[in-house]
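Consider the tokenized backbone below.
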């Protein structure tokens, strides 16, 4: 993809549905009794992996462009897949489905693409083994991973050393099958979409600050879920609106769940012009229309405590920091090294190529602004969020920015370039 500098954006847009919520809506609908509907689901490569996995386990999923109709198999109605489950690039598919598979009376093998095969799975293998699951994995940490038929799971009270919604959700989903009450405590609160949705589907789940507990469950009840737009996708247009001069972008129907809104807190601290309208509730999630206009930004400190609330938004925030007066210090972000790419390295090396003053540290970034960016050939490392960050950087960079492997935006935001073209014309 080649991107040229533009002068401004004035636009009203809608970005695609939330990826995390779509994965969970598909999974819980497949496990429920009755027919669920998932409206405005995310039609992207990652969510397709979750859908295909459940289709392979015998669930009837009817797909139109705006709605999934899912005839749930019930908690114990899944069938052995005739082939291994291919999770593609999707960590959420792999880690959440592992919790469900740990409770099944059949064996499943999960594999994935090159990037996913390098991402750590020990973080889910360890707690699942404590629950009695029988799991083997490459080097005990990587895909392919085999989850064997269970003799019955037992509840655990797990203290996790990583604030990860994928780990927490995996344990809670296994907890649906485990005798007793399964609890997981995190060092910081990660996104709570699983807790909200499990409650809506009828699970007995209790939250107490950083600890979440779930009781073994006989059945979940089918629901109609309306999926709001993804703040992690909105983040790239938020960044564009902030750093382009004379610009204003309104983004409709964005999920602003307080476990996901760290980017809003940070850009407000940076001096962003941001307005919220029409705040409402959509299927148990807070939603708003967000209006962003060009802003004179300043550098800020971002530490580990807020990281779970903005972990996927660091690329967009880092780009904003290159256009902010002063220094932005990001620390406590070592989780970014085990995402779809090593994002700390990808952000630092590629933005530096474009002229940013950016230093990579062991667990973060130090960015000095403001710097003029210049277009050149940059690599997405097949990471959707890096491709989108570089594309927005291209809008303010002198000349032409060429992004290698830009089609990876399909992982979470298939019409990213359509919307970008539309708002730039
Ligand atoms: C996700 C949790 C986060 C996030 C990912 C989606 C989820 O990962 O980065 O894009 O849907 O649970 P971690 O749980 O590894 O932090």
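A designed sequence for it:
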């Amino acid at each position: 993809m080649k991107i040229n500098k533009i002068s401004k954006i004035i636009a009203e847009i809608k970005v695609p549905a939330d990826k995390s919520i779509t994965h969970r809506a598909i999974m819980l609908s497949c496990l429920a009794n009755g027919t669920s509907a998932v409206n405005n689901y995310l039609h992207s490569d990652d969510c397709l992996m979750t859908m295909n996995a459940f289709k392979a386990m015998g669930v009837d999923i009817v797909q139109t462009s705006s709605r999934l109709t899912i005839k749930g198999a019930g908690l114990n109605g899944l069938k052995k897949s005739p082939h291994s489950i291919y999770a593609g690039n999707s960590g959420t598919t792999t880690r959440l489905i592992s919790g469900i598979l740990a409770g099944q009376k059949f064996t499943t093998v999960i594999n994935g693409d090159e990037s996913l095969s390098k991402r750590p799975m020990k973080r889910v293998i360890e707690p699942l083994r404590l629950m009695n699951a029988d799991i083997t994995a490459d080097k005990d940490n990587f895909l392919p991973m085999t989850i064997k038929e269970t003799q019955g799971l037992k509840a655990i009270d797990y203290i996790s050393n990583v604030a990860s919604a994928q780990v927490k959700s995996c344990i809670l989903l296994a907890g649906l099958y485990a005798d007793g009450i399964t609890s997981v405590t995190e060092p910081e609160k990660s996104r709570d979409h699983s807790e909200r949705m499990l409650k809506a589907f009828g699970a007995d789940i209790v939250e107490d600050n950083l600890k979440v507990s779930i009781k073994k469950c006989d059945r979940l009840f089918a629901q109609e879920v309306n999926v709001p737009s993804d703040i992690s996708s909105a983040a790239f247009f938020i960044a564009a609106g902030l750093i382009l001069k004379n610009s204003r972008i309104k983004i409709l129907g964005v999920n602003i769940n307080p476990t996901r809104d760290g980017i809003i807190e940070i850009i407000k601290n940076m001096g962003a012009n941001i307005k919220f309208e029409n705040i409402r509730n959509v299927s148990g999630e807070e939603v708003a229309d967000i209006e962003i206009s060009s802003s004179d930004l300043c550098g800020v400190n971002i530490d580990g405590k807020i990281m779970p609330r903005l972990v996927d938004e660091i690329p967009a925030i880092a780009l904003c920091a290159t256009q902010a007066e002063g220094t932005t210090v990001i620390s406590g972000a070592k989780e970014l090294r085990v995402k779809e790419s090593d994002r700390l390295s990808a952000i630092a090396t590629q933005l530096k190529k474009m002229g940013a003053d950016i230093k990579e540290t062991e667990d973060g970034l130090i960015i000095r602004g403001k710097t003029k960016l210049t277009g050149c050939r940059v690599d997405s490392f097949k990471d959707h969020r890096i491709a989108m960050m570089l594309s927005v950087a291209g809008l303010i960079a002198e000349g032409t920015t060429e992004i290698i492997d830009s089609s990876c935006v399909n992982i979470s935001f298939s019409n990213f370039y359509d919307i970008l073209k539309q708002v730039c014309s």
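The pocket of shikimate-3-phosphate is lined by residues 20, 23, 92, 164-166, 169, 190-191, 311-312, 335 (CB under 6 Å).
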